[in-house]
Write the structure tokens for this entry.
Amino acid sequence: MFDVVSKSIFVEFRGMFTTLPGPFADRATGIRAGEAYCLAMGWKPDPKSPDGTVPDGQND
């Protein structure tokens, strides 16, 4: 979730919550940073999905 006031990102990954402080220029930039964080933590996007996501609970 992008916080427009602080320009930070709130990320949930495998049940753990983290704030990426930014500041990020805009929501899209923040989301890319959140995705990069999740990739670094071990997230494996679904290559068959158009946006790389998987249904909830299937990438735990």
About this structure: The chain is about 25% helix and 20% strand. The radius of gyration is 12 Å. Residues 56-60 have pLDDT under 50 and may be disordered. Residues 7 and 24 are 5 Å apart (CA to CA).
